[in-house]
Amino acid sequence: MLPSRPPPTGARHSLLLLLLVQIAACTRSADNTTKALKEVTLAAILPLTNTDYAWAWPRVAPALFQAVRLVNSDPWLLPGLKLQLVHGSSENRDGFCSDSMAPLAAVDLKLSHDPWAFVGPGCDYSSSPVARFTTHWEVPMVTAGARAVGFEHFAAVTNTGPTHRKLGEFGVRIQEAMGWRQHAMLLFSDNKDANDDRPCYFAVEGLYTQLGQHNVSIRERVLQADNLDYKEEVQQIRDNGRVVYLCCSWDILRNLMVQFWKDGVELEDYIFFFIDLFAEGLGGRGPVRPWFRGDPYDFAARQAFRVTLYCCCYFHCYYWFIVKYCGLLILTILCNCSCLSIFLSTASTLLFCGLCVLGVMGPVEMDEFGDRQMDFAVWDTIDVESGEFQVVCVYNSSMKQLIMQGGRSFQWPGGSPPPDVPKCGFKNDKPACLARTNTHVNMYINIHMCSNHHIYLVLSMGLESELAAQLWRVSWDDVQMSNLDLVLRRTCSRLTLSLKGSNCGSLMTMEGNFQIYTKTGYYKGNLAAIKYMNKKRIELTRKVLFELKHMRDVQNEHLTRFIGACIDPPNMCIITEYCPRGSLQILMESDSITLDWIIIRSVMCCCCQGMLFLHNSVMVSHGNLKSSNCVVDGRFVVKITDYGLESLRPSSFPEDTYAYYARKLWTAPELMRTDTAPPCGTQRGDVYSFSIILHEVALLRGVFYLDSLTMTPKGQCVHPRGQYRQSVLSTCPICLPCLFRGYGSNILDNPSVSYEQYANNLEELVEERTQAYHEEKRKAEALLYQILPHSVAEQLKRGETVQAEAFDSVTIYFSDIIGFTAMSAESTPLQVVTLLNDLYTCFDAIIDNFDVYKVETIGDAYMVVSGLPVRNGKLHGREVARMSLALLDTVKSFRVRHRANQQLRVRIGIHSGPVCAGVVGLKMPRYCLFGDTVNTASRMESNGEALRIHVSEATREVLKEFNCFQLEYRGEIEMKGKGSMKTFWLWTKGGETILKPPLVLDVNL
User: Fold this and answer.
1) E strands along 204-252, which residues?
2) What would the pLDDT profile of 672-692 be if each residue is shown by its tens digit?
3) Are residues 208 and 344 in the same domain?
4) Cβ atoms within 10 A of the Cβ of 128, count?
5) Where does it reside (predicted)?
């Protein structure tokens, strides 16, 4: 029960205070079981400066802070909890909603404040990546901007504004109420490059989804606002639709309606629904006359707007709702936050499902997806003379009903709603209409001539009329890939919101439609399977016409629906229902699902019921039954396909092809023994094929898998006539329920068992793919660590920019091979490569034992540094000196493969000093060193001698602190660009003695 304490007064905060009472009740119940938290943080992600957005921070912030103060000032509301609000910006430099800035703001707020919930963002593109993050974090996200269809699949998103799914449901109810159950046309403007979040595209997506689910064929067309030919658009509407949904600017709508009037189109045959979710075209408080412009075309526009209905959200002041909704969201979340055990166990829209509170504009109710139940209003011209629009009908989304307002009714120019499909087609070219005219004339003549045969003639003419109408015929022009479908197909993801600048931008969930197992196309807006006929010409004989008529008449749940046939050369094909799960053969070969006995039983029942219906129909038999002709639809119902049309089947396959022999595996023995087998087979042959399919399903090892078993053939199965098989198929419906009591005939009738099976399969697949991913990631990281220093690679992996860094003191090593130029001239390129590879592989193995970093190798030069990128004090001098002695010792025992008797001689130079280091370039980036220290180290090497380590005075000062190296003063050496420098030879380390090699002057330096 609610507490008896009365809420504070004030209409301005009535919604807030009512919710505070509910919060207090929820908090009291939670105090007994969960310790209250001290702080509750909410994070708002909204446009920071652009007030053109109704949900921008300057507009919404006052309501947010007022709600925070109201909650924190009354300790009775949230005892022990303190509410604080933080915010981030979702706009880019140009002030528009950004799909890159919003997720960055969400991550920053999550890491810095760990909020319990997010408010915003307000745009579809910016909401999508934030929704993915919040769903992963299990943190609620409450917004009025996630309107697109796909957001219902994000568990953490709660939408308090109008959604396009609700708009689609509204369109379905309109269609049903007016008796429009066949066709609709969608006309919308779309500009992928604009910064408007493509509102019309996503609004039409909601209508497209919902109408398509209710078997309404859809024809859509994009209005190119920059180059719009209104006369062409009028012709397209006349040829493709009567019930038209438009989403565009008011100017485009008005110009289009004026063009309708100019062309003399009979407007009473059309109806236009103009979509304007936020009622931006209603204007001020004066009369609503969207057609009025004060120009010479006002009269034509007023007359044409009689067939235009205006659709928008039903509210009194949407701007005030935008300002107040943030307070509602904060307190709704807090109510759930106070119930800690619930909140911590699931942060999803389940917290908001079914919620209903009394707001300042009436009840605020949430649906099963956690979205607000938003009502829609339909405006119509009430007074023809004034042309004023008023609300005629309101769609209540909670009750899913259309409610007429104030005794008003729709003003249909023709007296009633126009049909969505004209009787004779949009182009008045249906063969039935043409045939019906001739048929009626002939019928009346025959009635006068033969009155005694009246009934016979009526029946006969009815059949002939149906044959002449050719209702099965499909024009190839109607089989196409439409614009909207192409965009949806390109998303290539079940839940993808593409970036704004891309060619895609759909939130549609196309489960199964992206796995195309056969040639497909779109017919009347629906995806269909297309089977081409290998014929150059089809003669429409009476037999062929009857076969096509029978295909259209035979319909069953377990048979694929025959849509029609196209006989226009060269595109002669059969068009049937497309089943997105593929064939039963593909299902058995798939690793994504395990066929347990429940699924096997379902397959057996579906196949059996489909074949029984086919055997009892005019088709009589199938003749080509096999596992690849048993297809699975989206509900996992198995359907029989490739039946009938005996005259259109290919006569034979070449006997040397795989297809010829493969199809024989399901063919009954008695049919293979005869040279004149019926094209559609026999019922006994179908029973044999059915048994082979059951054998496939049971063993899951392919057709006719025997392994090492020795099987004895049964006489009744190989009987020359096979008459004993007839009773097997007919008894299947009786036997199967006895074998599998307690299970439905469909896989989805047993959801708890099938879902558990699918979950187990998916877990195994996820674990396998995760292991493969981690292995590939390990290899990639290992390669990266070989190219760049470990610390620099970690920065790049975190997405950080590697800034150049200065180091006060490092030691650099240079070495090269004396006489390398002459040796290269006397050797082949492959031998030179082998030499350098052997030498540097040996060097690389040695330097791993020291705190050094290999910078690069250029030809025969080898460069190493110590003291960066990780500083090591003055140890860099010691590490490079020890490494140099080890390398020198290794070189003395190194032998060249193609010159085994030649001693390889190198000279080494070392210098210490400051450098600057950083990553240079974007392609093949390198970690490079810059500074005079690098040049000096190179000079030390070039002025050195064979098999000696040349050390500068700076390095000597570093090594003196370790007191374990013996150095010999060489003297002052004149170096290019440096002048005279004191240098030294490095001889020993730790008491070890290295013999001084003789001084040798080599002219090949």
Assistant:
1) 217-223, 243-247
2) 887 777 878 888 888 888 888
3) no
4) 25
5) Membrane
